[in-house]
Design a protein that fits this description.
Layout: E1 7-11, E2 13-15, H1 24-29, E3 41-44, E4 53-56, E5 59-62, H2 63-69, H3 71-75, H4 77-83, E6 88-95, E7 102-103, H5 107-119, E8 139-143, E9 147-153, H6 156-165, H7 173-189, H8 193-212, H9 221-229, H10 241-247, E10 248-253, E11 258-261, E12 267-279, E13 285-286, H11 296-302, E14 316-319, E15 322-325, E16 333-339, E17 345-348, E18 353-359, E19 362-364, E20 368-370, E21 375-378, E22 383-387, E23 392-398
Antiparallel strand pairs: 1-4, 1-21, 2-3, 3-6, 4-5, 6-12, 7-13, 8-11, 8-12, 9-10, 9-12, 14-15, 15-16, 16-23, 17-22, 18-21, 18-23, 19-20, 19-22
Helix pairs in contact: 8-9
The structure holds zinc ion (ZN).
Residues 102, 104, 139, 261, 267 line the site of zinc ion (ZN).
Length: 399
């Protein structure tokens, strides 16, 4: 194989989920969106339902099909032995409406859960199916804009402050002080819808008024609660996910900052654009703010009930121009590569690598030009040099 037969342009797949924005992804990719459809995610990966397409001699070939032809060559022997597939999925996300509160199981728990639901005969696409595969779903995101997310429970003293400051939550304070995170969460997650409404209605109405009067900032839970309901003519039912907005850390990642979310950590994206890299899995246990299936006992079983201080990563420089965001999983790694006019980035791919340009334009091995929004797939052992005529930012996903 020559180097040119190991490096290809690749085109991803846009997911039009309702929570997505309608301009960021079309503008990044340079594609029109005349109907103003929501464009939530841009997938670069080998998932069979939405595989990226390589452009080989002007023909499109699906990445999953190309890998299937000779997986050990496409992925390397060791990756193929260990994972049996491309272990990661690279995405661009544009979050306009907040996503569901969620937790992902560990690898071990996913295997058990999948086998149990298979044995129970729950069809894989059934709405009450929790485990779609036998894999864990760790995720890392690097902000492309000012990005907001909910990430893990607040530390004890911070959560105590919240429970004292929000009048309706005062009665929860003794329960939390005495019995801790799990008891508190269980209490609100097991309330009837009627109780949730009675509990939260005054809170929600007050937050809408406070936001309108300019009393709230995005660093406060009330801002996000108000955003959820401010356009409703009449508030009928209040989603119990609202409790989580108060109980979890609200994290603001600035462009270039990253957050990793491992098994058991409750989280939800609130707003903004990012690059996300995750293990190839669809195992999501939800805790609200979604019309999808919520299985409270299963969610409780896999949630880590502890307060955390969010770790917002700025990245470690591992090569000139390349910052890596260390993630404690074997499935993937992500780097941001920033080049200026006279810089050259040289490397060779150890396994299958994906590159996407988010700013400027890059030239690989003096032949392949990647404009903003364009991506390349590099096969193992591909030797490459990246140069740019101006400033250029790329993200690299690898095993
Ligand atoms: Zn998630």
């Amino acid at each position: 194989m020559s180097e040119s037969s190991k490096i290809f342009k690749i085109k991803g797949f846009i997911q039009h989920y309702a929570w997505g924005g309608n301009t960021f992804i079309p503008e990044l990719l340079g594609v029109p969106n005349p109907d103003g459809k929501p464009c939530a995610e841009y997938w670069l990966g080998a998932h069979p339902s939405a595989a990226a397409k390589l452009i080989i001699e002007n023909k499109e070939v699906a990445l999953n099909e190309l890998i299937a032809r000779d997986p050990a060559t496409a992925l390397t022997d060791s990756v193929y032995q260990k994972f049996g597939e491309l272990p990661y999925l690279l995405k661009v996300l544009d979050v306009k409406q907040m996503l569901s509160i969620q937790v992902h199981p560990s690898k071990e728990e996913a295997e058990k859960g999948f086998d149990r639901e298979e044995a129970e005969g729950i069809p894989i696409n059934a709405p009450n199916r929790n485990y779609k595969d036998r894999n864990h779903k760790p995720e890392v995101m690097v902000a492309l804009s000012d990005f907001w997310l909910l990430h893990g429970f607040k530390e004890k003293s911070l959560l105590e402050n919240t429970l004292s400051e929000v009048y309706e939550f005062n009665i929860l304070l003794p329960l939390f002080k005495r019995d801790g995170y799990k008891a508190l969460y269980q209490f609100v997650m097991e309330m009837s819808q009627q109780e949730v409404n009675a509990f939260l209605m005054p809170t929600v109405k007050r937050e809408i008024r406070r936001k309108r009067e300019g009393e709230l900032s995005k660093a406060e839970p009330g801002w996000w609660v108000a955003k959820l309901f401010e356009n409703d003519e009449q508030i009928v039912n209040i989603d119990r996910g609202v409790f989580s907005i108060y109980f979890f850390n609200i994290v603001n990642a600035k462009p270039g900052e990253a957050v990793f979310q491992g098994a058991g950590l409750p989280h939800a994206y609130l707003e903004g654009q990012n690059i996300e890299l995750m293990a190839n899995s669809d195992n999501v246990l939800r805790g609200g703010l979604t019309p999808k299936h919520i299985d409270v006992p299963e969610l409780m079983k896999h949630t880590v009930f502890e307060g955390i201080i969010p770790n917002v990563m700025k990245g470690n420089e591992i090569r000139i121009g390349e910052k890596n965001y260390p993630c404690p999983v074997p499935d993937f790694s992500i780097s941001k590569i920033e080049l200026k006019e006279d810089m050259t980035y040289s490397n060779s791919a150890e396994g299958m690598e994906l590159l996407i340009v988010t700013e400027g334009a890059a030239v690989i091995n003096n032949s392949l030009v990647l404009k903003r929004g364009e991506a390349a797939c590099l096969f193992p052992d591909a030797v490459y040099e990246i140069i740019t005529s101006g400033n250029c930012t790329l993200f690299k996903a690898f095993v």
